[in-house]
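Protocol step 4 of 6: record predicted structures for both targets in the notebook before any analysis. Target 1:
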Amino acid sequence: MQGVRQGRLVKFLRAQWRWLTTVLAMLLMAYYFILPSVLFSDPYSTVLEDRQGNLLSASIAKDGQWRFPPSPEVPDKFKQALLLFEDKRFYTHTGVDIRSMARALRQNIQAGKVVSGGSTLSMQLIRLSRKNKTRNLWQKIVEMVMATRLEWSYSKNEILSMYTSHAPFGGNVVGLEAACWRYYGRTSQELSWAEAATLAVLPNNPGMINLARNRPLLKEKRNRLLKRLAAVGHFDSLALSLALQEEIPGAPLPLPRHATHLLDFATRSGYRQQRIVSTIQTDIQVRAEQVLWQHYERLKSNQIHNAAALILEVATGNVLGYVGNVPSGHDHQEQVDVIQAPRSTGSILKPFLFAAMMDEGKLTPGMLVADVPTIIQGFAPQNFSKTFDGAVPAREALIRSLNIPAVLELREYRYEKFHSLLKNLGLTTLTQPADHYGLTLITGGAEGTLWDITGAYASMARTLNRYFTYPGKRRYTPTDFHAPVYLLADSLQVVDLQENSFLSASSIYHTFETLKEVYRPGEETGWQHFETSKKIAWKTGTSFGFRDGWAVGVNGAYAIGVWVGNADGEGRPHLTGTEAAAPILFDLFSILPGQQWFHQPVADMQTFAICSHSGHPATNLCEKTDTLLLPRSTAFVSACSYHKRFFLTTDGKHRVHSNCESPEKMKAVSWFVLPPVQEYYFKSKSMSYQPVPPYRYDCENPTAISSMELIYPRPSASVFVPRLLDGTESSVVLQAAHRNSESRMYWHVDDTYVGSTYRTHKLSIHPSPGKHMLVLVDDSGESIQVNFTVIDRQ
C-alpha cells in the first residue's frame, strides 16, 4: 500500500515538475528581489566637522529631522550596550533568532497581550526601512523573510551601522551621532557607559520613553542595562556605582554653530547631505569668531555691520578658520558669505604688481617712480591724500599705497600681462577681458574675493618657503599656487619641478620684506597702533567710496585675510583698510602659535651696486651706492640716468661751459636731477633736494636738459570743459613747472598770446571745441609746444 502511494507521488511530481520548477524559480526570484537596492532614501543633514571629527555645524534635513549621514563605525560602548539590550545573539543568527521568537511568544501568551516582539536588530532595521507599515503578524513574517535576505547582502557590521544611523532617538533626532550631540554635546566616541546605555534603550520605544516624559522609567531601564553590562564583565562594581549615579540628560542641546558659512559654501559646492570633514581647527575657529564679534561691537557704532576673516596654513593652504560674516542680524545680511562674495579690490593687488615687475627686471625696491598729476586716455588716478610727491621710491609707494605710481608701473608692465598673471595666481573673478579693466585693475577697478586673494598671498609664501626644499636648479612647481583647501581628504598632486614659477622666490621675498615695514602714512592712517614683535607682511586696501576695507597679512606659517564693510555696498566714513580691517588682522595673528619669518633665498639673488638716490643700478656718476642682494633679473633694469655731470663756477652758484668760461675756472660735479614736473613736487617734500644751479647770465644752455615741463594738458590730451550749475562754461587750467623759481613764462594758444605767469605757473583759458596748439616760452628763450583737443560739449 505504501509503495502504491509513493508511486502515485512520483507520478504526480513527474507530471507537474515544470510547474513546480517555475513556482520555485519565482519564489527564489521574489526572495532575491524582495530587498530594495537602497534601504533608506531619507534626506540627511549636511554635517561639517573639524579635522579631529568634532562637530562644527550642521543643517537640518529637508524633512525636519536631525539625521546625520551614516557612519561606518559604531563606538564600542554603544555597540555592547545595544547588543546586550536588543540582540545578544546578533553575530550568530541569520536574521531571525528562533530562541528570542519563542521567548517572546511565551511571554505574550502569559501576559495576554503583546509585551515582546522578539525582533532581531536585522528585523528592526527592515521595519525602520519600511516606514508606516502596520505592525501585524503578516508584516512580521515579511520582516523575517527580508531580514534573512538582508543578512545575505550585508555584513553584520554594516547592518549594525545602518541601524545605528537610522534608529529613532526621540523627537526629531534620528541616528546615534545626532543623538550624541543633541543630548550630550559631544561625539559618540566620547560616551560614558551610562550615556551609551541611555541611548541604547531609547530606540526600543522612543515615543513612550524619552527625555521629555517618563524619565524615571527611562532611568530604570538604563540602570538595569548597566547592571547587566557589569555582570558580563564590561566594567567593575565601582564603575557601575558611578554610572548609576549619572543623571539622565535634560532638554536637547543646541548643536554647535561654528563656520556656518563654510557649511553653506560646501553645500553649494556639491556636498549636500554629506559628512564634511574639514581642515578647520576648532580652537582657532572659535577664537576667530570671538575676535570678529568684539570688533563688530566697535564697528557697528559707525553703521558698519559686516566683517569676514579667512585663516590659512601656508604650507598646505588648509583653511584653519573661516568666519564668513558676523552675527549682525538678518536685516544686515548676516547670512551673506563675504569670503566668497566678489568685492572691489582697492589697493590689495598692488603687491602682486610690485613682485611681478621685480621678477621681470623692470623694478628694484628703491627705484624712483613718478608721482605727478597723470591723465592716461581720460583716466586720471588720484592718491588717497590728493597730493603728489613728484618722485617716490617704489617700496615707499607700495607701503603708502600710492595710486599714481602704481598706475604708471602697470602701464609699463602692461595691464594685459597683469590680468593674465592674476588669473594664474588664482583670481577667479576676472571674468571680463583685460581691456574691460585697463589701468584701473590696480586701483580697485576689478573685483576679487577674500578666498582668492588670501589664497594668492598664501601661495606666494608657499613658493618662497618651498624654494629651499627642491634640490638643484629645479626649484618650483605650479601647484605651489592653488586655491585654499577646506576638505581634509583633498591632497594636491606634485608635478614635475620647473625652472620658473609665476613669481620668483627672490621677488616674493623683497615684496614681503617691503610689506613687513610697520610705517603706514597716507591712506594707511592708524598704522602706529600695530607695532608688534611678530614679523608680518601686511597690506591694506580701501575701495572707492569707503565701501570695502581689506587687510591681508602673511608670514612663513600663516596667511590671514580680513574684509570689513556692509554687504549691501553702503559706504561709511573711516571705512578704510587700516582703520577697520587691520586691527582685526593683528588680533587674529596674536591667537596663532608657531609663527616664523622667511629665509632669504640667496641662491636666487645676485649682488648689485645700486644708486642710493635713484634705486637704479649705479653708474660712475652716482656719488653714493648700496651693495644689495636683489633678484637676478635686476641685471635688466636700466642704469641710473638721474645723475648728470655739470660744470660749475668755483663758487658753485652757476653752471658754465667752455664757451663762456675757461676750463681752469670750472669744477666738474655729479648732480642728481629730476625731470621738471617731478622736481616741482619733490622739492616741496624733500628739503635736502637741491635743484641744479642755473646757467650764468652769459652762458647759453647747450644741454638737452629741459628747464620746464607742462603738467596739464599732457601731449595729445583730450580735454572736456564742463558747464557750471548756472549754465556757463568753466575754464581749463593750464599748469607747468620750471626749475628756476624766479622764471617768468609766456603762454600762447594757437599763435595768440594769452598771458604770462611768475613763480606759480597756472593760467585759466576758455578754449573752443577742436584741436589747439599750446606754446610756452620762458624768459631765457626756452620753449615747449604741445597739441591738445577740446571735446565738443554736445
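Target 2:
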Amino acid sequence: MVDRTIIMNSQFNIGDICTKMQCTQGRANKVAMRWISPQLERTDYTFSDLELLSNRFANVLQELGMANGEVFFTFLPKMPEQFFAFLGALKMQLITGTLFANFGEDALLDRLGDARARILFTKQSFLKKVARIRDRLPCLVYIIVVDVEEDLASDILSYPRLMSAASDQFVTPLTGPEVPSVLHYTSGSTGKPKGVVHRHKSILHQYVTARDILGIKKDDVFWCTADQGWVTGTSYGIIGPWCQGVTQVHYGGGYDAEVWFRLLQDEKITVWYTAPTALRMLLREEPELFGQFDLSNLRHICSVGEPLNPEVIHWAHRTLNKDIFDTWFQTETGGIMIANRPGLEIRPGSMGKPVQGIEPSILADDGTPQADGEQGNLCIKADWPSMFVTFLNNETAYKSKFRDGWYYTGDTSYRDSDGYFWFMGRSDDVINTAGHLVSPFEVESALLEIPEIAESGVIAAPDDMLYEKVVAFVSLHKQFQYTKELELKIRIYVSNKLSTIASPQEIIPIDAIPKNKSGKIMRRVLKARYLGTDIGDISTLED
C-alpha cells in the first residue's frame, strides 16, 4: 500500500510539501540544504529559507504572467537557485523541467522547442548558446538570468532584481494528484528526445522509496551526487528527502576522490546515493587514500543509473567495510522500481527485488510470461504513483510503450527462482554512458552536419569505466581524408551541438555505413564488426 501520511488536506503539491509542510510540522529552523561550493564554502538553508525563497520565485513567475500547465525550464549547473526555482515553479503548478548544464544548442532547441517553454532560467555564460537558437523558439517569452544585477533586455531579466521585488508570501493553490509536475527528456534510438511528464502524485512513491529503499531517517544527512538535469537529481536529490524533512548536502564541484571523502567525513553523511561510474573511478584510486577518513557515520551507499559491477561491491566491502545497494528505475518510472536494500541479501550484479506495490514481469515479445531464468522484456504493471502520464506532444509514442496493462521499459532482463531480477541490456539502441542515456540518432544527425562527413553510424560499446561508450563510424566524402584535426573537430562539434556526454569516445573511419534495403542504418552490423562477433543475417543489406 502507498503511504499517504505526507498528504495533508488533499494537498499533493510537491513544492508545498517539501517546504511549507515541513515548517508547519516544526522543522522551520532545521537545515534543509547545506550548500558546498566548488571552493568548499558552506552555506546553510533552513526549511524556512526554502519556503520563503521558493515563494518569492513563485510570485516572480506569477508576475510574469505564467499560468498553471505552462512549461518552465531551468538551465543551470548545480547551485542553490536551482532548488528555489524548481520548488517555486511547482507551487505555481507549472510543468517544471530541468536541463543538463552541458547541453549544446541543438539539445536545447529540441527540448525547449518541443515543450513550447515560456520561461528559461539560466546564467549569463550560457546566454550565447541560447541566443543562437532564440529565433527558433517562438513560445519563449522571458529568460531569467541568475547572475546579473540588472535586466539585459526587456525579455532578459535579472533574477536578483526580480526576487528583491517579490513577496515571500505565496498561497499554493490546492493541487490534485493528477496535476502535471516534473518534465524530463529522454533519448530514443530513432528519433528526437521525448518529454516525459510526471504528476504531483509521484511524491507518494518518492517518499516511500526514499524511506524504505534508500533507508533515509528523519535525523539523517543525505547526499545525492546526481545532477538536477536528470530524474535522479529531482526525484531523490530534491523530492524524496525534503518531503520527509531530511537534511541534504549539495556540492557544486566535480569528481575529486579526496574532496568527496572529506565531505563524507566532515559533513557526517549517513546515506550516500551515487553512480556506478563514480564508484568505479574511486575503485581506481590508491586504497591508502580511504584509510585517512572516518566514515563511521556512513550507514550505507546506494547506486543508480547503470548496472553495478560485482567487483565494485567487493571493493566497498574490502576497502570501506560498507555495503552498496544497487537500485533500478528510469526517467519514465519516476522512482525506484527494483532494488537492493537493507535487510535484503545482496547478490552482486543483481538489480534486487521489486519495491513494495510494484509488479514487474518478464514478458516475451508476444506478451507471454517467461519462466524463471529466461530472458525477456522487463515490464511493469501500469499505474504506480510515480508513473509518467504522457510524452509531451507525442501521445502516439506514449501509447506504444504500453500493452495489455504493462509498461514495456525497453530493458531486457530475467528473474531467478528466488525473485531477484538481473539486467541484461537494452532492447533498443539507446546508449547508457556513465548513467546518461544518449540517442545514437541524435549523434548521427549532428555528425552529418559536418561538411567532411557523408554518412555516420553510432553504437554503444562496452567500457570498463563508463559502462558503455559512444562509438561513431564515419564515411567521408571522397575529397576528404581522416586526420587528427578532423577528429578533434568532430568531438568539439558534437559537444557544442549536443553535450560533452554525447561526444564520441571513439571515432572510426569506414568506407560505407551498412544499411538495409529501406535505408535504415544497421547498427547491429557495426557493433558486431567492432566487437568481432558474428554479424548474423545480412540478407537485407543494401547491395
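Step 5 preliminary note on target 2. The mean pLDDT is 93. The longest helix spans residues 47-63.
Proceed to step 6 after PI sign-off.
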